[in-house]
Amino acid sequence: MDTLINSLTDIVGKTGVLLGDDVAQRSVDWFTKASCQAKAIIRPQSTEQLSQVMTLCYEANQPVVTHGGLTGVVHGAVASPDELVVSLELMNQIEHIDAVGSTMQVQAGVTLQHVQEAAQEIDMQFALDLGARGSCTIGGNIATNAGGIRVIRYGMMRQQVLGLEVVLSDGTVVSSMNTMLKNNAGYDLKQMFMGSEGTLGIVTRAVLRLHPNMPSEQTAFVAVPSFDALTSLLKMASKELANSLSAFEALWNNHYALMTSATTKHTALLANNSLFYAIIETLGSDDEKDAEAFASVLEKALEAELITDAVLASSSSQREGIWAVREDIETLVHALDPMFSYDISLPITHMDEYVTALESKLKAQWPETCELVVFGHLGDGNLHIIVTVRDASQDARRQVEELVYGSLVKYNGSISAEHGVGLEKRDYLTLSRSPEEIALMKRLKQAMDPKGLLNPGKILA
Amino acid sequence: MDTLINSLTDIVGKTGVLLGDDVAQRSVDWFTKASCQAKAIIRPQSTEQLSQVMTLCYEANQPVVTHGGLTGVVHGAVASPDELVVSLELMNQIEHIDAVGSTMQVQAGVTLQHVQEAAQEIDMQFALDLGARGSCTIGGNIATNAGGIRVIRYGMMRQQVLGLEVVLSDGTVVSSMNTMLKNNAGYDLKQMFMGSEGTLGIVTRAVLRLHPNMPSEQTAFVAVPSFDALTSLLKMASKELANSLSAFEALWNNHYALMTSATTKHTALLANNSLFYAIIETLGSDDEKDAEAFASVLEKALEAELITDAVLASSSSQREGIWAVREDIETLVHALDPMFSYDISLPITHMDEYVTALESKLKAQWPETCELVVFGHLGDGNLHIIVTVRDASQDARRQVEELVYGSLVKYNGSISAEHGVGLEKRDYLTLSRSPEEIALMKRLKQAMDPKGLLNPGKILA
């Protein structure tokens, strides 16, 4: 064990340091289950400990990769044998809740679900929600600016954070634990760290914004005959349910057909012969009135032939059944193995054209083996695209990536809507960001982490 | 005329340069009407022109102050005789509207009101709103992260901006004209520039987010017997009108009493003997249902004795009458001359204690002359405090400032909720931000504007 690790053990104690098998048995990527290669995992129990840890690492020029719940999918948590991992797992407390101010102060290692439940206990809600809620941590949600299923109503993680405490690469603690909705006293420093994937600082604590609880949920699964109908339906729902629309998820036929045929896990909600499907959800406070307004919009959509069929969830198990089709990634992984998964965004009006063109390019190159599944947060301009060409080689991956990402350029789309860049998308960053933008990112990285010790090589080469 | 101005004239043309009286007749501060002292005002007509202007200024080490609509109140637009002003007034076009994607692409010099009206024309809304809407520009709204009256529902300016184009001090154009709600492809650079008051870059264009139009407005003016009742009312309104609550403005008695007695401009809406008043507003799409829900919450609040009386606007002129009491700053300026105006934020639960303590300190020091008026965006933790001690001297101002800002420290309040820092609050920044935060701001400023040419001395000394 090297000298640095001895010194770090003095700071965090024996239980604060993991070595050998305890490191290797951790997987650093949700999809690949790749094993953690770091020389040790350091688990501080306080901001002060982490500050001391980073002071020593800075002096020793020791690179550090920060770990949260390890549910990321872009190799953002990969650590090499010469790197240390800092895990926030022992800093998982909810420190304070202010029911009048609608805020919750937490440590970075707390899980999203724990925060959601604590908000529910005081009849409020924490608005971020995503499939990995049980494992992902608030620190990770912040570092990656997590999105999820309610962005259309509440925004991404960035909008849920009022205050932040961060440890810089040299051990400096920058505490900006603001609790107010409005604070224009100088630069809003927390914005820099959100979405920076651990490359500019290590998030230790946060003040989160809470919203009123919305006990009334209305959920429908609808069949949509064309892409034009789908955008008109979005437009109608946005207008008629403007205040309450909380999710508008689109499923291409290839996604729904696979989910209801490849497995017996999901009962077919509707016939699988429609070109598109959508999940529409509203959140409100008056179940009776909300249900009436919701049903009337669906009727209007039926009359206007924007939808051809609909299932309205009349119980929470029916609601879960609808969402299960959307959230069940495991069935996709199983059916499309080996698969490549993408998370892109582009202007909604160009989506159909983009997907159609992409599909024909893929089919031209792999006519026998290619399968494509498309679904996503239509209202946010965000699509998830899953491709298999039944070939797991790096060559095949690279060729598919070039088609998926390359086709985005003409629409000014983004190679990453919500998953981040990590290592996986780094080489394609130039397709979504200009040389001037990338130069400015590097200037910022250099200013914030001059030795390049924080999550080296992620986002920027 | 110096050589640099000659060269700049070659770039922007004769109409693009203002000199002499044309400069001096502009006031750089809404309250003080102080005259512009800059040696010239440069008015580029395109991003390319501005880039060339800044390239020359950078080479010549020429400091530059950016002007928008000049409605700021913290001396953020003050320019000295050795500084140049860059005004975006000739770049005032709306370039593109995407009704499906709900975005509007504009030049920085367009007024807020113009943007609001263009959104209305396609039956949508731009959600930022504030009293200066007719003069203030989108570029200024971005540079100061403007707040206003609908933050509780839609957030500040930061939340309305999807994409940004900025010219850096050396003339580099950084174009991040993202149009999607979600884009995690690398650092979200635009966040740095928002709220930086022209000290990090010059905003030239933006992609704004539009929201569905909300044709149904419900507005009430209510009398509230105590501060506890006021926070309970906020809590009730936030919960029962969760999706639609768009404004919750509080008026202390001193504000309302003055507005209805100092002038005959405003008809008294309610008797002026209540400790607090509030304006509650919702935005929705169904006037009949919204009115019903709104009235039922007011009834519930009456029954719970959270309010003692209420006026419900039944016409748009009544609505305007209610808002006029809140938005009429001129009557305050007239009645309290010479006045000092503050814009602070602090946790809602501490507001009453803070105001009471501040008032007694002020009255102790100026028993004969001191008057205090308090109102603001309660739901955002934001209060506007206006003080007169009938003494316009710098000494008096400084003493009042020390009481107003000094008393905030124990509550972790902010010296600026929405107005920014400019020159006016610069010396008090240390009361709201830690040495580590200020050091990081300076590090950022150094990285982005190494020669210190952009709005020198504003925010940071």
Q: What does it look like?
A:
- Chain A is of the alpha+beta class and 461 residues long.
- Chain A folds into four domains: 3-87, Uridine Diphospho-n-acetylenolpyruvylglucosamine Reductase, domain 2; 94-212, Uridine Diphospho-n-acetylenolpyruvylglucosamine Reductase, domain 3; 216-330, Alpha-Beta Plaits (2-Layer Sandwich), CATH 3.30.70; 336-444, Alpha-Beta Plaits, CATH 3.30.70.2740.
- Chain A is 34% helix and 21% strand.
- Chain A contains 16 helices and 18 strands.
- Chain A has helices spanning 3-12, 21-24, 47-59, 112-121, 138-143, 151-154, 190-193, 227-240, 253-261, 287-303, 316-327, 329-335, 351-365, 394-406, 429-432, 435-448, and strands at 17-18, 40-42, 64-67, 84-87, 94-98, 103-107, 124-125, 161-167, 173-176, 202-209, 211-212, 216-224, 245-252, 276-284, 309-312, 340-345, 371-377, 382-388.
- Chain A has a seven-stranded antiparallel β-sheet with strand order 15-12-14-13-17-18-16, sandwiched between helices. A five-stranded antiparallel β-sheet of chain A has the order 5-6-10-8-9. A four-stranded mixed β-sheet of chain A has the order 1-2-4-3.
- In chain A, strand 8 and strand 9 (173-176) form a beta hairpin.
- In chain A, helix 1 (3-12) packs antiparallel against helix 3 (47-59).
- The model of chain A has no long low-confidence stretch (mean pLDDT 95).
- Chains A and B meet through strand 9, strand 11, helix 8 and helix 16 of A and strand 9, strand 11, helix 8 and helix 16 of B.
- Chains A, B: This is FAD-binding oxidoreductase.
- Chains A, B: Keywords: FAD, Flavoprotein, Oxidoreductase.
- Chains A, B: Pfam families: FAD-oxidase_C, FAD_binding_4.
